[in-house]
Amino acid sequence: MRPTGKLHLGNYMGALANWVKLQDEGKYDCYFFIADLHALTTDYADTSKISPNTLEVALDFLAAGLDPAKSTIFVQSHVTQHYELPLLLGMITPLGWLERVPSYKEMQENLANKDLTTFGFLGYPVLMASDILLYQPQFVPVGQDQQAHVELTREIARRFNQFYKLPDREVLPEPKVLLTPSPKLPGTDGRKMSKSYGNTIQLTDSEPEVRKKLKTMVTDPARVRRTDPGDPDKCPVGDMHKVFSTTETLAKVYEGCRSAGIGCIECKGWAADALVQVLKPIQERRAGFSDKQVEEILKDGSRRASARAEQTMREVRSAMHMTRPTEVDC
Ligand code: ADP
What is the Cα–Cα distance from 185 to 12, expressed in whole angstroms? Predict the structure, then answer.
């Protein structure tokens, strides 16, 4: 998760809530980090917000239920191996592989106000591959939109393993995608909820803020007058209900909207009720952490992540015949 602002309900439903579930299943040794180096790929001209945003995202992680006693939670730039492996993997990554990453052209077009014709932006999938491979993981829990990045990570790992070998094992095992359901949550303007569109409901929004935002949310365009029937399947508020409301409320929404028995204001009020219920425990947990505690949690997480990443780097250096004088070959 990049520290480009506070997290919103889309981030929660699309990623965080799944991470908490995976963590609590207890089957996996999970690593979750705040990708501040990735924030630099687009926000390099003004880096002043990255550090305060990192703290906010860490608080959002903890508020959502990530638990430092169960998972390793850290900041990418605090683990220096995240600077080291991308350089080595960059040496073996053909330019063509990077140029055909779908988001490369797409983001350049979407963020036309920023000059993204940089080495760092073109190379961000190599940074991403390193972020993954440093922990020699079996799985990467992502939604469908991130599958292409994991596929590229697998290709880079394969190429690395062809060039550089250790006698008894593969240095960078190819990780598999652990597909997690990620319903695309609409924002208040009906487009995908996203920090860059200014249409979000943040995990820290108070009840009055949530209700106010919901009131401005766009609805089924066919419902011009109160007496016009509508269709929740064509309405962003309907999509909110599908994700957050109980089956009883959802049934009332379908019936009331299609028969024009209820108005949009009433329907939005019910959606707001459901959102407030989801946000309440998250906000209560958030209030239990001081900034100092969060800093300690991140420090400890970075120490643990660094120890694990260094284990991988020793193998990488050894396989590449670049062992340091103080190290023993693997
Ligand atoms: P943003 O667009 O707000 O900058 P990111 O691109 O940083 O969000 O997304 C971080 C994670 O949250 C990704 O795993 C992404 O799939 C998920 N995510 C973001 N927005 C949504 C949304 N509206 N619905 C579902 N998942 C989302």
Answer: 10
